[in-house]
Amino acid sequence: MTNYVTVKDLKPDTLYYYQCWDEAQGKSAVYSFSTGPMDGSVKAVMFSDIHIKSGEDIDEKSSGMIWNRALESALAREPDADLVLAAGDNANVGAPREYLGLFAPPALKSVPLAACMGNHDKKAFNFKYYMNNPNAHEALFGSLQGGDYWFRQGDVLFLVYDSTNGSAYDHYRFTEAACKANTDARWRVAMYHHDLHASLAPVQGFEEFALQLMLDPIMTHFDVDAVFSGHSHRYVRTHVLRNGRLAQLTHGGEITDPIGTVHFNNTSVVHVSGGTTAGFNPQNAFVYCEPNTVTYNVLSFEGRRFNLKACKVEDGAVIDEFTIVKSELNTPRNALLPPLGYNVIRVLTGIYAMIAWINDTNTLRALAG
User: Fold this and answer.
1) Residues 6 or more apart from 39 whose CB is under 8 A from it?
2) Bridge partners, residue 241, by sequence
């Protein structure tokens, strides 16, 4: 059984205390958390593909300990982090005990976790029961396990997508509504699981190509500054992309007023892989594929500067650092009309999403019956 609590009217830069109570278990210890600063700055620690496992070669207790050590190492170096981001595949087969391992680290009693759906999370119907996502989008034919949602932290609008949902119609409507509700947000960043632009060669599979057709126009036409993803278990930073195409090279570690979106991909935590650099993708500005090396990203938003550091969990060594600067006149545009051809994509993917929804519904009924 899971329970949800919503707390309203919190003040910035304030320490709060809370306690859980259950008739069977009694009262928990007293925990605390702090809200973000008043100046609109935000710091987040990001992981991807945590892959808490419940069987195979390792169980949820052992994999949970690996995740806990990685998280503790990152937060020890970034004690002022406001939140933790997780870019999908939080569980390995979507089992309930895997999500218990995901939320087991003591640090998550004081620092919020924002996670998106991954293809491994979708192997079961449990993801939504362990997440309490704000501003969830009511999709026409959304996933039965979760969906898109947004939240605001300081000057940053976080757009979180379920990239296992193939409905461009719903992803566009979600983004439009979120941007209209946050017209004063200085930064717009997106997080979804699939690595649409982190391959080591330009040619990808059909799934990635279809998702590019759906999501790339959204990132461009809503002025999304950065995208964070996982899936391929390697760290990649792209040049500036616009509509999924190379728009601007990033020489050095800083760029001012880019004319598109920079994509960042990250490694896995428990199911570590990598180790190959074969292939060449001109969209990639930096690639890191060391075997058995776990990395995390540190996202810092301060005024008109966004800085990202990619660090090794083992010793905190910085393997990549990049900064985006916005000039005084550079602010996100209001929602634009989609490109003409995108309407065709929205209709076709809407049909696909409807079929997937029907299949999921039938599967859920079979499991319940």
Assistant:
1) 154, 303
2) 246, 261
Q: Which residues, including other chains, have CB under 8 Å from residue 169's CB and lie 6 or more apart?
A: 140, 346, 347, 349, 350, 353
CATH number, domain with residue 329: 3.60.21.10
Q: In angstroms, what CA-CA distances link 64 with 45, 106, 230, 242?
A: 18, 11, 19, 38
CA dihedral over 76, 78, 82, 87, signed as positive or negative: negative
Query: Could you report the per-residue pLDDT of 208-232, keeping only the tens digit for each?
Result: 888 888 899 999 989 999 999 999 8
Closest CA to 163 of 177, 150, 141, 148: 148
The count of domains in the chain is 1
Structural domain span for residue 72: 38-368
Give the number of C-alpha atoms closer than 13 A to the C-alpha of residue 346, restricted to the C-beta side: 16
DSSP 265: E
pLDDT in tens, 197-209: 877 776 677 778 8
pLDDT of 106 strictly over 60: yes
What is the pTM assigned to this prediction?
A: 0.90
CA 196 to CA 211: how far, in whole Å? 7
Residues in the chain: 369
